[in-house]
Amino acid sequence: MRCLALAQELRKAGVKAMFAVAAIAEELRKRIRSEGFEVSFIAAEPGSATDSLCTSSLLSRNDCDWLVLDGYHFSDQYRRSVAAVSRHLLLMDDGDPRPLCDCDIVVNPDIEDWNTRYPARSQRTQFLLGPKFAFLRREFLNARANHLPSPIATRILVTMGGADPNNVTLQVLEALQHIPEPHLEVVIVTGASNPHTERIRQGIVKSCHKVSLLTNVKDMPELMLNSDLAVTGCGGTWCELAYMKVPMLLITIAVNQESLANSLAREEAALSLGWFGSLSPADIAKGLQSLIANQKLRSGVIANAAELVDGKGAERVVSAMKMVSSSKDSPRLLVVR
User: Do 173 and 299 belong to one domain?
Assistant: First the structure.
């Protein structure tokens, strides 16, 4: 989804962007194509040597100026291989422990100790770091909220990412049973890759609250506009919630999210509960209750988070890419991988 935001901004700047995918849910493929972008299928295991060869061939056939790599399955060897073919390389980095290969631009929209994260920096590489470089899709930029927090938060959005392999969504649903009052309106959003839909439906039947389950949502900004608070992981959704002024209760569901969750909590831009595996339903319920009943706390969280994300991240990155390409010529074609 963040690559779709980048592609939208590139098109706005007159640059053609195409997507190259080795594994993707059909609904996501349809979504990308519905936005008018070409999707090329790579018939290989994601991140494999065959994948590298196929991607390199695609770059050569289409005379591409840039390759954007965004994913955890691209090994050092893979990245070096495609970098040798691509004129310019941009790496999206959000916590990958492996060293970065030589590239033109690194984008990391998280909040970190950058000297620790990048102790040695190539003179060739531009590092675009922090939430001011977060990508937001067009529908978010057109729908920013201005409403004030309600005295009691009764509309809860639960979204734990596209796959949620550990079914943290069900954990949150069970935690809500520990909050009989006030009666809540809960919207659960799952992605096309979520394997736990049936178990979640069974949990909804038992809930003491009004709960609805939505899959493959097309209008997340509208859902966020109608939410008093959100329970989420610490993936890219946090930037969208910050921009839409929805206070966040964070649950860490991946190793690379831990540092960011701690940083957002330190900035008082969210409440962080820590690792999903160490949380009981009562723990999650306690965190929810602290936000539900405290309008002042939610107002502070909203203000601090909104300061971090201004919605111009993709615009800033595209400007940097055009400067790297040439002082005279803007890039002709870019591949998002």
Answer: yes
Same domain, 51 and 171: no
Please state whether beta strands 185-190 and 155-159 pair in parallel, antiparallel, or not at all (unpaired): parallel
- Hey, what are 53's tokens? 């060869």
Q: Are 231 and 325 part of one and the same domain?
A: no
Which of 151, 298, 160 lies closest to 229, judged by CA?
Answer: 298
The CA dihedral of 322, 325, 326, 329, to the nearest 10 degrees, is -70
Beta bridge partners of 20: 40
Using the structure block, give the residue that is written with the tokens 């936005």.
Answer: 35
Q: Tell me the sheet residues that pair with 6.
A: none
> Contact 238/250 with Cβ under 8 angstroms?
yes
CATH of the domain at 162: 3.40.50.2000
Number of structural domains, the chain?
2
Q: What is the pTM of this model?
A: 0.86
182: phi then psi, degrees, rounded to nearest 5: -75, 165
* Same domain for 280 and 145: yes
Same domain, 291 and 226: yes
Segments forming the whole domain that contains residue 106: 2-136+311-336
Write out pLDDT tens, residues 225-273: 999 999 999 888 999 999 999 999 999 998 878 888 999 999 999 999 9
Residues 59 and 182 in one domain: no
Question: Alpha helix locations (H) across 226-327?
Answer: 237-243, 258-266, 281-292, 295-308, 313-325
Instruction: Say which residues have a Cβ less than 8 Å from residue 328's Cβ, sequence separation at least 6.
Output: none
Q: Could you report the per-residue pLDDT of 29-65, keeping only the tens digit for each?
A: 898 999 999 999 999 999 999 999 999 999 999 988 9
CA dihedral 100, 105, 107, 113 (to 10 degrees): 60
Q: Which residue shows structure tokens 């929810």?
A: 288
Kindly report the CATH number assigned to the domain that includes residue 319.
Answer: 3.40.50.11190
Phi, then psi, of 21 in degrees rounded to 5? -130, 140
